[in-house]
Amino acid sequence: MNTVQDIEIYAKSMKLADIERWLLNHFEQLEVMNSGKVVHDFLLHKGEARIPLMIVENAVGKAWTSIWFKSNQTSWQSDMDCGKDLNHFAGCRVRANAAPWADGEDMDTWWQITEQGEESTISWPNAL
């Protein structure tokens, strides 16, 4: 179990089926709770853990999909660890908030890993 309350990353130009394939590398089962046009709710199973997951396609513009694990029971220690794992699996661009949310923090500063695996901090205003 990790120290963050939840994990949320944004993947660029990824199909839902590819995200599901990545998830099946880490979880025993993906239970579909609700699936609409752009919002998909799952319950992930790993051992005794049951992890709620929400995927929102086109969450930011038309290219970015939000992947939000609503639990601290994933195997990743941070949003960035999760993002690196997805990048390694799919070779896609991934973004995550550069720091956990806190009053007074600049929420426009984001961590990014490119398709080539290059990491940087960027400004991504109005992403949320």
Model description:
The structure is a single chain. It contains 2 helices and 8 strands, in the order E-H-E-E-E-E-H-E-E-E. The model has no long low-confidence stretch (mean pLDDT 90). The protein has an 8-stranded antiparallel beta sheet with strand order 2-3-4-5-1-6-7-8, covered by helices on one side. Helices cover 16% and strands 41% of the residues. With 128 residues, the protein is α+β, with helices and mostly antiparallel strands. It has a single domain (7-123), classed as TATA-Binding Protein, CATH 3.30.310. The two termini are 26 Å apart. The longest helix is centred in the middle third of the chain and has 12 residues, at 79-90.
Topology order in helix (H) and strand (E) letters: EHEEEEHEEE
Q: In the residues, how many domains can be counted? A: 1
Which fold name corresponds to the CATH topology? TATA-Binding Protein
Sheet-strand content, in percent, reads: 35-45%
CA radius of gyration is 14 Å
Summarize the biggest pleated sheet. 8 strands, antiparallel
General form: globular
Number of helices: 2
Ranges where pLDDT stays below 50 over 5 or more residues in a row are none
Which structural class fits the helix and strand makeup?
A: alpha+beta
Distance between the termini: 26 Å
Write out the strand line-up for the largest beta sheet, numbering strands in chain order.
2-3-4-5-1-6-7-8
According to DSSP, the number of beta strands is 8
**Helical content class:** 10-25%
The chain-level mean pLDDT equals 90
CATH class: Alpha Beta
The CATH architecture classification is 2-Layer Sandwich
